[in-house]
What does this fold into?
Amino acid sequence: MKRYAKYIKPYKAYFILGPIFMLTEVAGDVYMPTLMADIINVGAANHDVPYILRNGALMILLAFVMMTGGILGAYFAAKASIGFCTDLRSDLFKKVQTFSFRNIDSFSTGSLITRLTNDVTQVQNVIMMGLRMFLRAPGMMVGAIIMAYLMNKRLTMIFAVAIPLLAVSIAALIFIAFPRFLIMQKKLDALNTCTQEDLTNIRIIKSFVREDFENKKFSERSADLKQAGLHALRVVILHMPVMMLAMNLTTLAVVWVGGNQILDGEMPVGDLTAFTTYIVQILMSLMMLAMVLLNSTRATASIRRINEVLETEAELSDADAAHPDKTVAEGSIVFDHVSFSYYEGSSEKVLSDINLKIVPGETVGIVGTTGCGKTSLVQLIPRLYDVSEGRVTVSGIDVRDYSLENLRSGVGMVLQKNVLFSGSIEDNLRWGDANATDEEIRGVLEDACAIDFVEKMEKGSRSELERGGANVSGGQKQRLCIARALLKRPKILILDDSTSAVDTATEARIRMAFYTTLKDTTVIIIAQRISSVMEADKIVVMDDGRIVGIGTHPELMQNCEEYREIYESQRNREVTA
It folds into this structure.
């Protein structure tokens, strides 16, 4: 509760006013049957029309007061719950933003989406219901029991049997329901993960004609969620008729005993009418409490899942950074006996004992077979992952001693998977520099060889991109991503196979632009094509997580068998083609 107190504080007034106004409605509910009893016992019995009219007018006035209290109570409850969960969702999202790739992988994207949406909504619903019912239900029950006891002590003894039985029923319901709701939320995670994966990769699914397979997989996940939902809600479905049966049996017992008292002249008819109303109020308040507790059970499962995110320590942080105020001054990079594995404590190393020195302004190519660790190597520079052994320094400082913001501000990266966001081309480019001028934007588009196709679009650089850049080709998307990185004016630029969809002539023009525009920037190019890195100052050859060769193209052709094999195989394919 201490963690959530800060979300209550800004809306404390709403948390107080909501229940108070609901108690206004309760007071009217409890007093209304007494007025009705007086009308029957006094007004109707004595044919006193003015008395009936006075009490009737009072009941109408009371109804308006109750309506006002109910509306205001619901309004403040909504303000409190929505405000609380808006702030909670915001903090959850900020927490996820601090996660490393490894943290995110441990939850899965679909699960995080469920926690940010469905789980927070469950908490919001229970807070809203709780503020409306938490005081209203017990207030109505206690008030109705007191009024019923003052009216007829003997009849009230019936409640001594009914209420404990219902309390035991409610406790059993909560005990059984909690683990079932937890399972249901996990099944929802699985469905959301499946949905997110399929919608993101819909083009691949269609190109491989795998719609039937994915439909079957989705149906299985959906069926699992349905079964888990029915398993959880079956308890709720059973509970409601049991409560109604108890209410009806209690009413029947009161009418039977009260009817005999009326026949014996021990009780006025109006009192029995009021007493029956109090029975309904007492049992309805128990039903409301049961619903609040039941929803609280589901929300408790959601809160547990939310806490898992909030309590997760971000694997990468700059809390212990020795130089958090320093920025990347120049692009020197040193890998000093670096080893790395994706899973902590794993004996399977992706990189083993890497030693590499890159001087500022140098253009370095990295080549090697698929899965040899090229991407893993460069991801250690901006601390997308941390080394398992050894250290990486940038500008002479261990990357762990920079603040993450300052380190990553000095590194531009174009990943293998080129990502563009919904919005205009300019909006996407300004991720590199939010304050960039039109001239600067045009300059980076020219350097990335993107200006030609951008100017042909209807609104030029203000043209809208669909989600993920779906309305541009793969090569155009790559060039826009390169332009975005160039606009950042980084000290280190990493291109991770980012020209694979670009023709060789365009790729050559982009490289020439680097030599003029980025003459002081360290450029690291990961490439599958040897032709992409032949002109680099030096080329690093990797195999099975190790560096097997470093040098220029002529040096490697002479001294590195692995490099020579890659070069010869690519040249043979070109000749054959």
Summary: The longest helix spans residues 211-263.
